[in-house]
């Protein structure tokens, strides 16, 4: 198991978050001392990835309790920080259900959510890896679903890590994941640290790759899985699923039970976050498009359940036609 990357650290009286906006160039940390600090870190993408957002939000409630601040206000501020990843709401609801909203009870629950996430990822790693060929597997992943996006090990990247440890993987391809470059900056960083063979491709190269080389599985995470199995994940996931279907690659979604939203009947009901146009028109202050360019920047899309061959959670593997087990 590799759990060397830990982006969320409780430090006695405050929360430290590895600033994912700065990777891979610099390893710097953001200090959060209130729920508002955590909400700003989530909205600003210092911490990102559905499970990591949920874990951080839980710590955010504990931070405000330590300062004697109003619970409802802290919960509201955190809930509004990002809309699509249901793990945020799931973690806040779990904290709300505690009989005691004192600081030590809230902190203990946040730490439990954090530890359980790593345990769930290790379990999903085993379940997902077992679906891959015993040797020579060639897989494609999108966005970052690794230790940086979770309590450790990762979801889709956790499956790839476990499969690598089992000797199943011959080659990983990881997309850039425009516009925020989670794949190029974060997934590449995580895989290269462990010597897992990966090649970076432009997002637009994925269908061409599948037409030229056999890809056994496309493996992705999720931000919200509706009751019928429709899955919201990073923008571009839907296009990968269509290409995979056309080229005979299997398509796997890996997510803990906190990513499942049984109250949401299907993908049409999943709120899709739209972010600022600057993410498309600029990179580190340099113009990528003419001044005044109009944009549309949805940062998630919905892959219909019909395009998914396996949904892996810590509770088991759901195959097409089965009830979704999350
Ligand atoms: O906008 P991000 O970087 O938070 O989006 C992350 C993703 O879409 C991940 O694939 C998803 O959260 C699963 S992370 C284990």
Automatic annotation (TrEMBL):
Determine the domain of life of the protein's source: Bacteria
Pathway per the UniProt entry = Amino-acid biosynthesis; L-methionine biosynthesis via salvage pathway; L-methionine from S-methyl-5-thio-alpha-D-ribose 1-phosphate: step 1/6
UniProt-listed GO biological process terms: L-methionine salvage from methylthioadenosine
EC annotation?
A: 5.3.1.23
Pfam families registered for this protein in UniProt: IF-2B (PF01008)
Q: Which UniProt keywords apply?
A: Amino-acid biosynthesis, Isomerase, Methionine biosynthesis
Residues the record annotates as the site (Transition state stabilizer) are 143
UniProt keyword annotation of Amino-acid biosynthesis present: yes
Quote the catalytic activity from the record: 5-(methylsulfanyl)-alpha-D-ribose 1-phosphate = 5-(methylsulfanyl)-D-ribulose 1-phosphate; 5-deoxy-alpha-D-ribose 1-phosphate = 5-deoxy-D-ribulose 1-phosphate
* Active-site residues annotated for this sequence: 223 (proton donor)
Report the HAMAP family cross-referenced here. Answer: Salvage_MtnA (MF_01678)
What does the UniProt function comment say about this protein? Catalyzes the interconversion of methylthioribose-1-phosphate (MTR-1-P) into methylthioribulose-1-phosphate (MTRu-1-P). Also catalyzes the interconversion of 5-deoxyribose 1-phosphate and 5-deoxyribulose 1-phosphate. Part of a bifunctional DHAP-shunt salvage pathway for SAM by-products.
* Protein name per UniProt: Methylthioribose-1-phosphate isomerase
In its UniProt entry, the species of origin is given as Panacagrimonas perspica
């Amino acid at each position: 198991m590799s759990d060397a990357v830990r982006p969320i650290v409780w430090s006695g009286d405050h929360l430290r978050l590895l600033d994912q906006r700065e990777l891979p160039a610099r390893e710097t940390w953001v200090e959060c001392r209130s729920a508002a600090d955590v909400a700003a870190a989530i909205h600003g993408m210092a911490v990102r990835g559905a499970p990591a957002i949920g874990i951080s939000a839980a710590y955010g409630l504990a931070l405000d309790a330590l300062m004697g601040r109003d619970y409802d206000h802290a919960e509201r501020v955190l809930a509004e920080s990002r809309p699509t990843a249901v793990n945020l709401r799931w973690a806040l609801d779990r904290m709300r259900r505690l009989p005691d909203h004192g600081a030590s009870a809230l902190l203990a629950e946040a730490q439990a959510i954090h530890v359980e996430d790593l345990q769930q990822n290790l379990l999903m790693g085993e379940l997902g890896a077992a679906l891959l060929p015993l040797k020579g597997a060639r897989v494609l992943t999108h966005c970052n679903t690794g230790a940086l996006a979770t309590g450790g090990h990762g979801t889709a990247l956790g499956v790839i890590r476990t499969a690598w440890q089992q000797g199943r993987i011959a080659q990983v391809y990881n997309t850039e994941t425009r516009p925020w470059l989670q794949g190029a900056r974060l997934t590449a960083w995580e895989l290269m640290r462990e010597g897992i063979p990966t090649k970076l491709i432009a997002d637009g190269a994925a269908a061409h790759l599948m037409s030229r080389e056999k890809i056994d599985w496309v493996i992705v995470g999720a931000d919200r899985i509706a009751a019928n199995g429709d899955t919201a994940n990073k923008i571009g996931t839907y296009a990968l699923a269509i290409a995979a279907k056309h080229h005979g690659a299997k398509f796997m979604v890996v997510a803990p039970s906190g990513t499942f939203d049984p109250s949401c009947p299907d993908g049409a009901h999943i709120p899709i976050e739209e972010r600022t146009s600057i993410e498309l028109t600029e990179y580190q202050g340099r113009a990528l498009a003419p001044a005044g360019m109009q944009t549309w920047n949805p940062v998630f899309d919905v892959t219909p359940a019909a395009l998914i061959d396996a949904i892996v959670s810590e509770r088991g593997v759901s195959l097409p036609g089965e009830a979704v087990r999350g």
